[in-house]
Amino acid sequence: MAITEENPGYKWVGTRPIRPDGLDKVTGKAQFGADLTLPGMLFGKVVRSPHAHARILSIDTSAAESMLGVKAVITGSDFPDLVANGAHPMAIDVSHNAIARDKVLYEGHVVAAVAATTRELAEAAAKAVEVSYEVLPHVLTVDEAMADNAPLLHEGMITKGVDPAPDQPSNIASRIVHERGDLEQGFGEAEVVVEREFTTKPVHQGYIEPHAAVADANSDGRANIWCSSQGHFQMRADTASVLGVSQGTLKVTAAEIGGGFGGKTVIYLEPIAVRLSQRAGRPVKLVMDRDEVFRATGPTSGTRIKVKMGVSNDGKLTAAEVWMAFEAGAYAGSPVGAAGMTVIAAYDIPHFLVEGYDVVCNKPRVAAYRAPGAPMAAFAVESVLDELARSIGMDPIDLRLANAAVEGTQASYGPKFPRIGFVETLEAIKEHPNYTAELGPNQGRGVAAGFWFNAGMNSSATVHINENGTATVVTGSPDIGGSRQSMALMAAEELGIPYESIKPVVADTETVGFTDVTGGSRVTLATGAAVVDACRIVIEDLRARAAKTWDVEVDQVEWVDGQAQHVDGSQPPLSLDALAAKSGRTGGPISANASLNARGVGAAFSTQVCDVEVDPETGVTRVVRYLTAQDAGRAISPDYVEGQMQGGVVQGIGWGLNEEYVHDQNGNMENPSFLDYRMPVASDLPMIECCIVEVPNPAHPYGVRGVGEVGIVPPMAALGNAIKDATGVRLTDLPMTPIKVLEALNEQSD
Amino acid sequence: MKYAAPSSVEEATSLLSSSPSAQVFAGATDIVPQIHGGRQAPEVLVDLKKIDELVSLTSDDKKWTVGAATPTVELTENQAFSQEFPGISEAAGLIGSDQIQSRSSLGGNLCNGSPAADSVPAMMVNGTRALIAGPKGNRLVDVSEVVTGPGQTCLDSDEFVVEFEIDRAPSLTGDAYLRMIPRTEMDIAVVGAGARVTLAEDGTIAAAALALGAVAPTVVRVTAAEEALIGTTADEDTLAVVAAAASAVCNPIDDKRGTIAYREQVAGVLAKRAVLIAMERAQQRNGDV
Ligand SMILES: Cc1cc2nc3c(=O)[nH]c(=O)nc-3n(C[C@H](O)[C@H](O)[C@H](O)COP(=O)(O)OP(=O)(O)OC[C@H]3O[C@@H](n4cnc5c(N)ncnc54)[C@H](O)[C@@H]3O)c2cc1C
């Protein structure tokens, strides 16, 4: 079901053709990160810290180096000292996360790497590298890291955002605050005030494809890198920074990517592979195991969040107070900032205080994960909203409708909202039959909503008209969610030629203009706008060529249905094929570039309702019905929009019910496999029903908002609210495993 | 690492006797992940699937015989077997996925020695015996005695299981297996419960067996519950005794998959439920052996 404001009468936009990358993927031809093999290529293996926190006393590589077939062994000392070079603190963190220097800060932290002629040899050589450590006490959670006298990860870390600045270092990297109005007044005006405390665990993005990189260094200092990432320009920049070379010396080619969800916006293997290749004089391939992916990449933060909110009897929110602490992992940079900005952004609340802390601890450095920061924040706030609705006897959708942000609402994080579709998503759920479907025994229903900004940033596109009138659309956005199809659909609509006549490709860093990462749900918006711009330049050119052919003014020529037409019909139309065939005589090949910084980002909202059934004797929660409504602005490719909506929900269900890192007392991860890190399997899930809401973004030529992220924001609260409805118990600690549900049920019946 | 594929039990036995670090395998669904994970490094891998009697499923008047390397999918697809032993069949049907079940075997499930192995409680409540071959000849051992601890069996390094024998189920007999996992598949039992009951003509329980997986170092029988069930119709009070007895025999660990308290409580719940399903099935299997 699509709610379309106006019927724009598009021919291609909004259709569901076969995906351009589909055939290669189902026939196994697609080249993913680990698939490339080069002549003479060596296999690399990374040596990782077995300790959560330790000082590196010495590294002895001699045994590994002397093994026959081992061609290179490197350690942190093979990389430039960015601290001495006065680099930006973030660049230093990226460098030290890629390979440790004097200290290891988490289990899995890279300390050395080897390259050898076979994989087995590389593994043996990695084992032969002898590292001696002085083990230090570690902290794993925000509670441990913020405790008095906690062991420090970074001896010089002074909390930012506190005035006056603290005189002692701590594990708190920074503090953020958003406030408005007068809390005391706001809570004074409330009939009911609910206060709850929540905790969430770090969860991994769980992409199927482990990280992989192949590097081939030339003797003149240049190097080629092939890797699977969400942004090869970002890989180039960060790898150059870690290696201490100019970006221009590196060329990065994007492989097909088997999932990223934010986790492949960061470098891990790339600088290591380049350095090994330089030392060995041969290409080097590095591929992580799943175990390494879990121990050393991703995840998103574990958190502790306190929320206090007040509501009047007629359902108006009067005040909100939020305190949150986010694990950053080993280096500053948790998504607490975005959490603080999004936590109450969906609602118009007159008085609020939001306070957040970015806290380092001895776990892998967190990476972006789908709407970074928003899901945990929404789990807390949307659970409290549910309690408020219950306590004043109001329907949970009505409570949200009574407070929903609309066009013109001053968002809690600053700007006024332009046109947004939050109310429309709430109404779509309320009117859907699922919302009133009968519930069986032990079943309950939960509602939750979510907000995400979406991003704009920089994108480039090139459109080539081939000699036969087909088009190649070149972008620099790795396709993780179907963007090639969306680019082709928009180009088909613009150029007026069939979708099948367009080949969308993702080009390397030397073949297309700079493009930021595929992240922030930005590609269909920003790269899409660049494609539309480039198509429009091409159309201008085509009109000019037709005008020249007919010897008329350009304004006498229109571009309609893939052909140049004279406004008064006095000339036989010139098709794109015909113009392309004659391009040599009308000014040469037809092609155009467009680069832009996307403005007018359209915010995304999602409202979801889920029904669960809880086994009262085992605490097992099964999701029996799930519906998600999301404002897409315009669904360029409805199949992929639904895929994104469903994917977000499914990851949210995993986060809500079963996914968590389990660590032992030494800070070692105990469940680094998909067997025991329990992501949902297909049989765990009902059909995730989708309702695409279309409230066009006025700033985009096709009304696009990003759709990739917001879907993961509401599920945890929707599940928690449904469990409460089914059982009467409120779970505030993720994941809501059978163990925790049963404990809560036992407590309730005591 | 060497691979050997003997075609007879004798050949396999002599291979095992001649190389001390040789190890048999059937489906390899346990052993390959263990080799990859560095937990096993046998010098010779002996494939049992090329020996005919190890891959077979037959029955006569007295018993069913299941070759130890028979893919477990046979146990779910063979109608006669799955009607007679729905509990074993459903336990076999829970192992991994379709792909796994087309390789995995009862011999591997048992001899891998995991306390969470799904087929073991179901085999145990049906009095299954393992025929073990070795250089000193064959011996018949009750399945409940094969596993001696996590990852440990009573087999010598040159012995292996050839087949399993299960006596034909009398009429008015039913079995069942239930397991608790947080997901719906591709997971390891946090608690497993196998039950079997035989009813007397008057509908009361004449014989009962109950075994629990994943709650102790090995699969355990709940004899107190079995005794409590005799002569009853598994009424609510008796089931409460069964549940309490099941919780009481648990000797679990706290680990990444479950807590002690959870396992104890849910063992009682699954025990109860398995007995009830077995009862229902027993009532339906009247005289049609
Ligand atoms: C993805 C996946 C999911 C799984 N899910 C489940 C599950 O849900 N439930 C469950 O119980 N298990 C599960 N398993 C584990 C495994 O599949 C089962 O234990 C299976 O029954 C093992 O049988 P196999 O023939 O593959 O064993 P193998 O790997 O061939 O052997 C296992 C062990 O038993 C020994 N062995 C094998 N046959 C004999 C014999 N005849 N005599 C003596 N020793 C022998 C081997 O030497 C080895 O030590 C899963 C495994 C995977 C990979």
What does this structure look like?
The complex is a heterodimer of chains A (750) and B (289). Chain A has three domains: 2-29 and 456-598, Aldehyde oxidase/xanthine dehydrogenase, molybdopterin binding domain (Aldehyde Oxidoreductase, domain 4); 35-137 and 205-296, Aldehyde Oxidoreductase, domain 3 (Alpha-Beta Complex), CATH 3.90.1170; 373-454 and 602-749, Aldehyde Oxidoreductase, domain 4, CATH 3.30.365. Helices cover 27% and strands 25% of the residues of chain A. Chain A has 19 helices and 27 strands. Chain A is globular and about 90 Å long. The two termini of chain A are 46 Å apart. The relative contact order of chain A is 0.13. The model of chain A has no long low-confidence stretch (mean pLDDT 97). Chain B has 289 residues and is an alpha+beta fold. Chain B folds into two domains: 2-48 and 58-167, 2-Layer Sandwich (Uridine Diphospho-n-acetylenolpyruvylglucosamine Reductase, domain 3), CATH 3.30.465; 173-284, CO dehydrogenase flavoprotein, C-terminal domain (Enolase-like, domain 1, 2-Layer Sandwich), CATH 3.30.390.50. Chain B has helices spanning 9-18, 31-36, 73-77, 79-84, 86-92, 98-101, 106-111, 119-125, 223-229, 236-249, 260-284; strands spanning 2-4, 22-25, 44-47, 57-59, 63-67, 129-134, 137-142, 147-149, 152-153, 160-167, 173-180, 191-199, 205-213, 220-221. In chain B, the strands form four sheets. Chain B has a five-stranded antiparallel sheet. The longest helix of chain B has 25 residues, at 260-284. The mean pLDDT of chain B is 96. The chains are: A alpha+beta (750), B alpha+beta (289). Chain A binds chain B through residues 617-620, 622, 657-658, 662, 670-671, 675-676, 678, 680-681, 683-684, 737-739, 742-743, 746, and chain B through 180, 182-188, 190, 256-259, 261-262, 265-266, 269-270. Flavin-adenine dinucleotide (FAD) binds next to strand 2, helix 2, helix 7 and strand 10 of chain B.
